[in-house]
Batch of 3 targets.
Target 1
Amino acid sequence: MKRNSLLYVGSMILCVSFLFFSCKKQVVEDIALQSSTAPQSVNGTECRPAVFGAYSSSANPANDRWITLAQKWYSNGKVKYLKAKSARFSPVFFADPFLELMYDLDWGEVVYEGSQVYLKDVPNNRNLMRVTLDDQGRPAASYYYYQQVGTLTYWYDTTYYYYNGERLDDMISLYHTNEYGTVFPIHSWRRYKFLYDSWGNVIGAGLRDGANFKIDYDYTKPVQGITLNYQLTSSLSLLEHMELLKLPMHHAVIKIGYGDIHNSTEYKDYEIVDGLVRSYVYVPPYALPQDKTTFYNGWECGTNNSIGPGNGIANLQQFQKLFPAMESH
């Protein structure tokens, strides 16, 4: 949302300055008080979510297209290389309410240095994000530095993460951007409070301005692993792609949205094998029978199915060759 009032911007700068220093102090205190629980895992199996893609089909096959939203290569059980596009590039764009500049990472390298993890944008020779881990290997803070190539437009975000046991309880994002074309850059902040159901699924995240990110589940369809098409913030999405953090989803998701029903997206027709989601479908309202988008999850289960660093999946046929139809063991 645009904020064009200079008075508002000035007041927010003072507010953010106070919040920034109080958050830094609180992060140190919270890390010292956290319990000795195990870090969050991606799912309950040995399979890893190596590919996430979307295929849109319509009555006119010439308009059909495949988009690789994430592809990962592993080393010693950790993500080493990453190609990723934010959800705004998917055929079903679920927008961040602040119209945040989002990532299009052609080739990234994940580097661990003690408690610091760096996501390096290799082609542009710069750090896209730095993450500070707590003593349980979970993100305590992330520092996201995005600038559109060839322009002066940028989005900087510092986010602090707070846990209740193993669950992500709160995150506070302090951001700085000139994206909106205002006289002065915008300094502002947002806080997400996460909510969970009795199964342990994340069902929502409340914003300070009253908007709510909501997730509805089909409790007749339990799952052990799913990559979902949604966008909350770029920092959170990249942490999930790097597999440093995962919002728990133990059932098939049937609807996501912000606030009211007019801003919701529904999914159906799940293919689930041994608890792992292979695909699910989005059909636009009032669409023709042929119009739909299928989201695909590609799982590496004890073998390396990736086609190698530097190469990305270019079409649905290539995905299907690398990750053939899953069969129950």
Note: Residues 6-322 form a domain with the Porin fold (CATH 2.40.160.190).
Target 2
Amino acid sequence: MTTTDGVLTVHELLTLAAIVNAGRTGVPVAWETASGDIKTGVIRPVQLPSSGDVRQAEVRVSGTFEHLWPIAEVVAMVQDGTMALDYVP
């Protein structure tokens, strides 16, 4: 997700909207770790900073452990297929 110049592509915007919606409804997600393992959890509402700048937001996923990622990282994971929203085993 482009954060340095403040410009989002349409694809990034649609992915961001899907992530925010998934968080609002608490859907199951799955993601691939750096070691190639598949982890699952439930995405939680996107946490906005006090500035309200969505580019600085964080995404929390509850699984065996609580995972917290910058929104830009989650957008990249969804776009490259290493995270699936609304995962059904």
Note: Strands lie at 28-32, 38-43, 58-62, 66-70, 83-85.
Target 3
Amino acid sequence: MKKFVSESLNEYGPIPWSGKDPTKARVIGTIITKEMDLGDYHLTSVTMEVVEIIGDIYICNTWYKPGVPQVIHDDMVKEFIPK
């Protein structure tokens, strides 16, 4: 898995969904994330809906924080199911 997802995002420039509302966008598919151990933490698998794919970055239809959509790097994705 890449050490810093932000390095990968910089390859594509600013996230096009920044400031927009991804919760109102058309869903193009679903991802299932991998279970991962990060140091002392265990991350369970989750399912998220995707509104856009930019290179190896999935833009989800949820907020990470106000004005910033949730992004998931391809290294964290177990499966993508197109709609």
Note: Strands lie at 29-33, 36-38, 41-43, 47-54, 57-65, 68-73, 77-82.
